[in-house]
Structure formats: structure tokens, C-alpha cells
Amino acid sequence: QVQLVESGGGLVQAGNSLRLSCTASGRTFSSYAVAWFRQAPGKERERVAAISRSGATTSYADSVKGRFTISRDNAKNTVYLQMNSLKPEDTGVYYCAAKQSSWLYVADFWGQGTQVTVSS
Predict the structure, then answer these.
(1) 111 close to 21: Cβ distance less than 8 angstroms
(2) Can you say how many angstroms the Cα of residue 4 is from the centroid of all Cα atoms in its chain?
(3) Alpha carbons 77 and 10: distance in angstroms, whole number
(4) Hey, is 22 helix, strand or coil?
(5) What is the pLDDT of residue 102?
(6) DSSP code for 90
(7) Which helix (H) or strand (E) holds 99?
(8) What are phi and psi for residue 93, nearest 5 degrees?
(9) How far apart are the first and last CA of the chain?
(10) Which 8-state DSSP code applies to residue 105?
(11) What distance in Å separates the CA atoms of residue 116 and residue 99, rounded to the nearest whole number?
(12) What is the pLDDT of residues 32-51, one digit of tens each?
């Protein structure tokens, strides 16, 4: 089992950047695939980015492709989401999720979320 804690959210102006972190407990984090999701008020949860347990494979939603980068440091048990050129429509609660597998299709573990607000 793993516990996930997100950090790095906040209020920023459009065009600026934020870096979110997802730090996991446990010694086997390198065996978990991880993804970032977000949910805006009144909207369905959306998968934003995902990374394989080795870090070799990543994927992005079309809405963030070219602006967001997911990466991981298994030595630090941490996955990052670098968000550049932020837009007001990026506003929402961002969650990281994990599954003990090479790739995440359905998450087994979730963090508590961190709020990102982008003002215009």
C-alpha cells in the first residue's frame, strides 16, 4: 500500500507556471505507475498526464500537451507535474493517483488533492 501527498498548488496568473509534487510513502514506489488528474467545479475528473513506473513512458491529455511535463524521481519517491503557460481553464483540484503496475489504467490509490487556481 502507498500513501500519496500532493503539494505545490496555489493561485497564479495566466501565463505563469507551477510545479506540483506527489510524494509517496513506502519503499516500493518505483513499482507504481502514476497519473495526475484534475477536476474543475461542475466538470468530470480528467486525466491530465501519466508516467510509467520506470519513467520511460509518458502520456498527456490534448488540452495540456506541450505545456505540462510529468516526471519522476524514484529515489525521492516523488512524481512532478511541471505546468507552464497556465490558462484559466487549468483551474481545478489536482490529484495524483497510483497503481502497482507498469502503467496506470485504473488507480488503486489517491492523494487528497491540491488546488490550482489560474486567474485571467
Answers:
(1) no
(2) 11
(3) 22
(4) strand
(5) 87
(6) G
(7) strand 92-99
(8) -90, 125
(9) 40
(10) S
(11) 24
(12) 999 999 999 899 999 999 99
Distance CA 61, CA 29 (A): 24
How many beta carbons lie within 10 A of that of residue 101, not counting itself?
A: 15
Neighbours of 6 (CB within 10 A): 22
Give the DSSP letter string of 4-52: EEEE--EEEETT--EEEEEEE-SS-GGG-EEEEEEE-TTS--EEEEEE-
Q: How many whole angstroms separate alpha carbon 84 and alpha carbon 67?
A: 5
Residue in 89, 86, 80, 110 with CA at minimum distance from that of residue 98? 110
Q: Which residue has the cell 475528473?
A: 45
Q: In this predicted structure, what is the pLDDT of residue 63?
A: 96
CA pair distance 70, 20, nearest whole angstrom: 9
Residue 18 pairs in a beta bridge with: 83
Q: With helix as H, strand as E and coil as C, how does 51-73 read?
A: ECCCCCCEEECCCCCCCEEEEEE
Contacts of residue 101, defined as CB under 8 A and 6 or more positions apart, other chains included, come to: 32, 33, 53
Give, in degrees to the nearest 5, the angle at Cα 72 between 12 and 38: 45
Q: Name the 3-class secondary structure at 89.
A: helix
